[in-house]
Amino acid sequence: MIIYKNSLKYFNTFGIDVTALEIIKIENINELYYIWKKNHLKSVPYIILGGGSNVLFLDNFKGIVILNRLKGININEHKNYWNLHVCSGENWHQLVKYTIKKGIFGLENLALIPGCVGSAPIQNISAYGVSLKKFCKYVDVINLLNKKIIRLSNIKCNFQYRSSIFKHSYRNNYVIIALGMTIPKKWKPNLNYKDLNYLNFNTVTPYEIFNHICKIRKNKIPNPKIYGNVGSFFKNPLVSNKLGTQLLKNFPNIPYIMKNNAFKFSAAWLIDQCNLKGYIKGGAMIYSKHSLIIINKFKATSNDILYIAMKIYYCVGNKFGIWLEPEVRIIGSLGEINPSSIFSHNYFK
Fold first, then answer.
1. Sheet of 284-286: strands edge to edge?
2. What is the DSSP secondary-structure string of 161-187?
3. Residue 1 — pLDDT band, cuts 50, 70, 90?
4. I need a labelling partner for 205 at 20 to 30 A (CA). Which of 61, 145, 232, 325 fits?
5. Residue 206 domain flag
6. Among 38, 68, 98, which residue terminates a domain?
7. Strand order in 55-57's β-sheet?
8. Of the candidates 181, 174, 182, which has an alpha carbon nearest to the alpha carbon of residue 141?
9. Does residue 27 sit in the same domain as residue 142?
10. Is 232 a catalytic site residue?
11. Is 228 a member of any domain?
12. Which residues are CB-contacts of 235 (< 8 A; sequence separation ≥ 6)?
């Protein structure tokens, strides 16, 4: 175990300068359980962080921050597929690079997604037409209350858009320790996403897709070391057939796709129609290249960022009748806060 000074500034990609009671890096399950049990007996709150790329700290945290650094990648080759067992503290993008170098193709569309492997199933990460659900075989979790390790199959993970069982019944007192994936050896490029349409399906290679997606993401998303951010702050909304049909009548140019008999709209487009791109509050700003991204432009406080998020929520809601849902985890002084308790239809008037 390594215990750091209590500033969290360099452990969250927003770069919010808040503190924790203690910040402890763990490298094996015994360390994880020991730290949790020691503080659980004292009723000290805790949170698990990987890369800190999807959190907004509102206040100093009055508990323990455990940095997950469980490492290890095991690969088993079969006739028609590869089986991967990856510990949850591995960096996701480095894993994608590693598999491509090994000649294991399929994850290239998920390149340059920030964070650690343990966060991937929680969010069911997806990008450019591919989601983790496609490859996930199982997720291993530890129940901290009895130290038992449980293996959940793909179906039991209940993967949905930006969601899974790990946001619900396996949220408290469970920690993801490993991810199992099955990747077919027979590779087919996935070029369904609009930014990839110009690539030639018959000649494109996994390396070209990987490099192209890295270039797109670097152009759209600022480097958090320069401008702190968590990527997209809000999810793309799924709305009912009735509301979606009405919105198409009122806004014929609104981009959408149909998913499970619901309309999935572009949150960025909705925000752009509210003329909010470039909006500034204190040291925070809506990024000029992508309106779903709020950046820490200059020593922003969490209140600056939250104010802008609320501004987006209110403007889009009142213009379109769509109340956006945050992707980011919001952490208060005692732990994670349900966004619905902050984002209220009547809050920002």
1. 280-281, 284-286, 294-296
2. TTB-GGGTTTSSSEEEEEEEEEEESS-
3. low
4. 232
5. yes
6. 68
7. 55-57, 329-332, 335-337
8. 174
9. no
10. yes
11. no
12. 161, 162, 267, 324, 325, 326, 327
Which long-range CB contacts under 8 A does 71-77 form with residues at least 24 apart? 71/27, 73/98, 75/102, 75/104
Q: Is 327 a catalytic residue?
A: yes
Domain presence at residue 346: no
Domain end residue (candidates: 220, 255, 289):
220
Structural domain of 260: 238-341
Q: Which one of 232, 291, 302, 329 is the catalytic residue?
A: 232
Mean pLDDT of 236-251: 94
Does an H or E element contain 142, and which? strand 136-143
* 29/77 same-domain check: no
Q: Of the residues 22, 291, 327, 329, which is catalytic?
A: 327
Indicate if 263 and 319 belong to the same structural domain.
yes
Q: Are residues 214 and 317 in the same domain?
A: no
Tokens of 335: 């732990």
162 is catalytic: yes
Cα-flanking dihedrals φ and ψ of residue 340, to 5°?
-65, -20
Give buried/exposed letters for 113-137 (b at 16+ CB in 10 A, else e): bbbbbbbbbbbbbbbbebbbbbbbb
Q: Answer whether residue 121 is part of any domain.
A: yes
In the predicted model, what is the mean pLDDT of residues 180-198?
A: 92
Q: Cβ(132)–Cβ(125) under 8 Å?
A: yes
Catalytic residue among 22, 162, 164, 302: 162
C-alpha 2, offset from chain centre: 26
pLDDT confidence tier of residue 348, bands split at 50, 70 and 90 = very low
Alpha helix (H) ranges present in 195-239?
206-220
pLDDT digits (tens, 9 = 90+) for 305-319: 999 999 999 999 999
Same domain for 80 and 193? yes
**Are 18 and 86 part of one and the same domain?**
no
Count how many domains the chain has.
Answer: 3
